[in-house]
C-alpha cells in the first residue's frame, strides 16, 4: 500500500495518490492532471477511482479531465448532483483499490455533500481518513459556503458538529488525518502549518474537536469568519459542470507576442496586463497600467480575490520560462482566458524603447523620517486581524482583499505610503492604485517586519480602523 500527499503550497491544497496491487486512486486532484497520470504509469498501476471530498470552492478540480484520460470513475458523496458522469456514493459504501478498502463517510457541514474517505489497509485496520474540508489540522471547514434557502451557517455548523462526533471522533486515535488544506487557505480560519496529524492528537489540541456542546461548537466555529473570496462560488459552480481540459487553455495562452503585438492586443481586447515578477523588480520598471501579483507568493488566491471576472482576457509579463507555470496556476482558480505573453519578458519591452512606469519604494527608515517631517497618509493593506493585533498608530487599515470597496475613498491627487507584512501585498495594491490613476504611491520596502524596527509608535491591541482622510 502506498499513500502519497501531493501538497501545493501556493494554494495550501493537498491532493492524494493511493496505490495497491496495481490499482490507484486520486483524492481531490488539481486542474493539471499529468502528475497523477505519470505516477500511475511509472508504478505500472491503473487509476481506478477519483474521489472528490466535495465541490471545491477555492480551486478548479481536474476530476473530469483525469477521468477522460485515465478511464477512472469519479466518486462524490451523498446528495451531490453533477452535470457529468459520476458515481454518487451511499453513506458507508466501500470501494476496493487492490488490497485496500475506501469507505465513504458522509460528513455534511462544510458543504452538504462533504464526504470523508476512510482507508482500511490490507489487514482490515483503519489507516487514515481523507477529510477534505470537514476536518483540518487545528481547525474545521467554514460552514458559510453552502447556505441555501432557509439554511444558515449555524445550521451547517450544527451538521458539522454531528458529522465530527458521529463519524470521525469514534475512529481510533492512531488514524492519520489527511485534510484537503493547510495554513493559508481561506477555507478555514486557524489551520496549522502541519499538513497531517493523528486523530488522537487532534482530539487533544483542535478547538473544534474539544467543544463540549453543539452550542459551544457553533459559536466557536462561526465566530470571526471573514467573507469568502469572490471567486469561491464561481469555482464551486465550475466544479459541478464539465470542466474543460487544460490543454486548450495552454494552446490559447502560450502565444509569444512581440512588444508591439502585446501592446496592440492590450489596446484591442481590454486585457488585464498581469506582471508576475518579484515585487521589488516590478517597482523599478513595468508596463504602464500593468498589475503586479508575484508568482512567488500566493499568486492564484490573490488573482481570484482581485480579478472579479473569470472570463477577463489576460496578457502575461513573466520571468522568461515562467509562462506555462503562470497559466497553470491561473487555471487552478478558473482563469482560462490568457491570450498571450510578452516574448522575451520585460527586457524585450525596454529594448524596444517602449514607455515604462515605476513605483517609488523607500526603506522603513526613510518612511519614519518622512512621517516625522510631515503629515503622511499611510495605508496598511494587511488583513483586519493582522492590523488589530499590532499596527502603527498613524496608519489606516485598508485590506487588500477589499480594495475594490475602499478604492472610492482614494484621492488621486494625494500621496499614499503603503505597506503590508513583508512587501508582497503592498506592491499589488500599489500597482492597482497606479493603474487607476493614482500617481503618488510609495511602497515601504520590507513591510511591517521592517517598520517594527523603527521608532514609530505602535499599538498592539484591537481598535477600530481609522476613517480614510481624503
Automatic annotation (TrEMBL):
Residues 267-358, 372-460 form the Rhodanese domain. One of its GO terms (biological process) is hydrogen sulfide metabolic process. One of its GO terms (molecular function) is sulfur dioxygenase activity. Gene3D superfamilies: Rhodanese-like domain, Ribonuclease Z/Hydroxyacylglutathione hydrolase-like. This is MBL fold metallo-hydrolase. It comes from Pedobacter endophyticus. Pfam families: Lactamase_B, Rhodanese. Keywords: Hydrolase, Metal-binding.
Amino acid at each position: 500500500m502506498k499513500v502519497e500527499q501531493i501538497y501545493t503550497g501556493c494554494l495550501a491544497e493537498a491532493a492524494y495518490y493511493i496505490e495497491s496491487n496495481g490499482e490507484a486512486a486520486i483524492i481531490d486532484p488539481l486542474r493539471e492532471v499529468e502528475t497523477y497520470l505519470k505516477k500511475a504509469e511509472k508504478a505500472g498501476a491503473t487509476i481506478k477511482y477519483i474521489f472528490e471530498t466535495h465541490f471545491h470552492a477555492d480551486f478548479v478540480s481536474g476530476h473530469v479531465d483525469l477521468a477522460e484520460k485515465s478511464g477512472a470513475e469519479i466518486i462524490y458523496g451523498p446528495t451531490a448532483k453533477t452535470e457529468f458522469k459520476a458515481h454518487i456514493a451511499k453513506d458507508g459504501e466501500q470501494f476496493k483499490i487492490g488490497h485496500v478498502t475506501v469507505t465513504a463517510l458522509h460528513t455534511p457541514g462544510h458543504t452538504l455533500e462533504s464526504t470523508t474517505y476512510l482507508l482500511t489497509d490490507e489487514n482490515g485496520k483503519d489507516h487514515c481518513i481523507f477529510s477534505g474540508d470537514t476536518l483540518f489540522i487545528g481547525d474545521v471547514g467554514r460552514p458559510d459556503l453552502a447556505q441555501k434557502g432557509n439554511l444558515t451557517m449555524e445550521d451547517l455548523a450544527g451538521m458539522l458538529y454531528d458529522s465530527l462526533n458521529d463519524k470521525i471522533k469514534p475512529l481510533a486515535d492512531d488514524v492519520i488525518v489527511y485534510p484537503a488544506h493547510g495554513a493559508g487557505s481561506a477555507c478555514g480560519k486557524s489551520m496549522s502549518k502541519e499538513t497531517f496529524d493523528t486523530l488522537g492528537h487532534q482530539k487533544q489540541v483542535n478547538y473544534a474537536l474539544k467543544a463540549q456542546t453543539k452550542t459551544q461548537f457553533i459559536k466557536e466555529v462561526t465566530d470571526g469568519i471573514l467573507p469568502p473570496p469572490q471567486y469561491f462560488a464561481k469555482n464551486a459552480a465550475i466544479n459541478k459542470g464539465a470542466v474543460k481540459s487544460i490543454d486548450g487553455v495552454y494552446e490559447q495562452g502560450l502565444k509569444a507576442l512581440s512588444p508591439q503585438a502585446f501592446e496592440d492586443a492590450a489596446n484591442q481586447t481590454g486585457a488585464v496586463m498581469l506582471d508576475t515578477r518579484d515585487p521589488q523588480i516590478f517597482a523599478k520598471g513595468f508596463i504602464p497600467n500593468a498589475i503586479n501579483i508575484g508568482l512567488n507568493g500566493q499568486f492564484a488566491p490573490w488573482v481570484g480575490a482581485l480579478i472579479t471576472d473569470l472570463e477577463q482576457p489576460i496578457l502575461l509579463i513573466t520571468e522568461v520560462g515562467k509562462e506555462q507555470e503562470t497559466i497553470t496556476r491561473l487555471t487552478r482558480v478558473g482563469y482560462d482566458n490568457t491570450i498571450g505573453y510578452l516574448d522575451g519578458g520585460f527586457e524585450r519591452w525596454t529594448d524596444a524603447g517602449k514607455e515604462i512606469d515605476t513605483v517609488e519604494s523607500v526603506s522603513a527608515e526613510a518612511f519614519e523620517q518622512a512621517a516625522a517631517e510631515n503629515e503622511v497618509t499611510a495605508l496598511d493593506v494587511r488583513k483586519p486581524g493582522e492590523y488589530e493585533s499590532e499596527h502603527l498608530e498613524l496608519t489606516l487599515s485598508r485590506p487588500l482583499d477589499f480594495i475594490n470597496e475602499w478604492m472610492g475613498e482614494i484621492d488621486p491627487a494625494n500621496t499614499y505610503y503603503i505597506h503590508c507584512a513583508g512587501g508582497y501585498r503592498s506592491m499589488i495594491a500599489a500597482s492597482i492604485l497606479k493603474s487607476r490613476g493614482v500617481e503618488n504611491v510609495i511602497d515601504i520596502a520590507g513591510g511591517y517586519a521592517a517598520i517594527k524596527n523603527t521608532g514609530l509608535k505602535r499599538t498592539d491591541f484591537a481598535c477600530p480602523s481609522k476613517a480614510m482622510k481624503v
